Amino acid sequence: MRKRFIRSDGKPLGAFHPRFEQLEPRWALSAVGLSGMAALERIGAVHAANSDLAGESFESAYDFGELSESREVSDFVGRTDARDVFRFEITSETEITIAMDNLSQDVDLFLYSETRRLIDRSTNGGSQAESIGRTLAPGTYYAAVDPYWLFSSNYRLSLTVPPPKQTPGDGEAFADVPWFGGQNEWNLNAINAPEAWAQGFTGEGIIAAVVDTGVDLTHPELLSSLWVNSGEIPGNGRDDDGNGFTDDTHGWDFANGDNRPSDQNGHGTHVAGTIAAANNGRGTTGVAPGITIMPVQVLNADGSGSTTSVAAGIRYAVDNGADLINLSLGGGFSSEIRSALEYAARHDVMVIAASGNRGATTPDYPAAHSAELANVLSVEAHTANGTNATFSNGPGNSVQVAAPGVDIYSTLPGGRFGRMSGTSMATPHVTGLAALALSANPSLTATQLRQILVEGANRSISGSTASGGVNAAAAVAQAASSISRPSMLASNTTWHQTTESFWRPLLARSTFQDAGASTVALREDSGVPVCRTGRALRPTSCTPAARTVDAVFAQLEARAGVDHGFRMWAESGEWLHPRP
Fold it and tell me: Which parts of 127-262 fold into alpha helices (H)?
């Protein structure tokens, strides 16, 4: 019941409280004041009634200080203790709930700004509990407890804020969050993707190529995630960016040789949705809803294709800025595909591949290459009950993790949704998780990223001999904890030209002018076009003749007196690099 405020002379006061709008110190304070008072305890502590912990004005308010965690206090108000005032500070935008209960008579709750402006109030009648929920900007605030009329009561006051986000360096898994969605989202909850989202990591800024049967380019849940080739003018019949592909606005179709990688099978769209479907409460949600998806079609409408198309698709993804490549496909050994995976490795692009569905002890290719290529990771499937899917190929000597792959609900062509099973469905979970980790720490190399995913795969999967079930709460936290400060580029670097006719790693050194440390400098005025896409320098929107340096800028520590090296790739006669 909303109370009607009455002045002491019996006249209505309207919307304002009779005592608290100005908070004048009209009653004498204790001679002791608050200076000798013990600090209030955290949640769980209860102070004795009638202890009068708080002062009666803004000036004498009890100071909680910075409200970095939830606090609770019990006190008494009424009779000679006319009101209680508590001061607290917020250092970043925070959702806060101020609640008061355990009342025996009518006591009201008010929230004021630092300038003593009334922000909100809770004025329930009788002994009902009071509560104020607000999102507050950084600043100082006051919570005021004021008895209605001449009432008095014990009370319990709690100020509840979300638990603090873990910061890089904690090294521990992110805290659990409530179950996300419904039963269709069991897979997201199984790998703890919502735990990473709660920390602000959604894959934003990361590009993942779906090398598959194509993607439904008009699906409502994927539209916002589709890669757009900014160097291409759509529909003008020209290869504007000089990458060898005309009007490849949203990728390329190597199966049919055109610029429309649109899915006529359903497989690729399902995979794409598991990675990137929008988190909008409709249909389904991807593991990394903030990611960008690059459609690369290498399989035709019946789900088959050539090794040449697959290899070309991998190279296209690398050359056009993909940070990750999802390969939910497999077969026998192919030297063409092996060469393309090595090309991805030289450009520091991670490849996540399906282990296969034969129930064999070893994975199919290309997943089997994870045994010798540090940028490739094999993925098997498990059920909602945490058991290994019987159709999954085992790891053999490969590096393999497990992810949900049975009855996975995701996007289908035509704006539809449906369920599929297979290691093809498990693989995009790991691709999405890799994107979460990269968004937490874009400096990770492909080798480091794979190591983090494997080490973080600490969920026990019954019947599996893989490294374990992937866990975003652990892996992304580890990625975030390993980040360091951004590099700074020096301007006083000496350069010389490479002469090798093959790619080779070079150790680049330059002077970090302010701190005296060594970091990476890449000369961009050498006359060779350079374009930045995602985390790396790529040949996107450059001439076809341009040779590229794939220099993913690591977040190198810039500590005085510490030398750092950085490996980058250079090719025949086209690039200059710093002298060691």
Answer: 186-190, 193-198
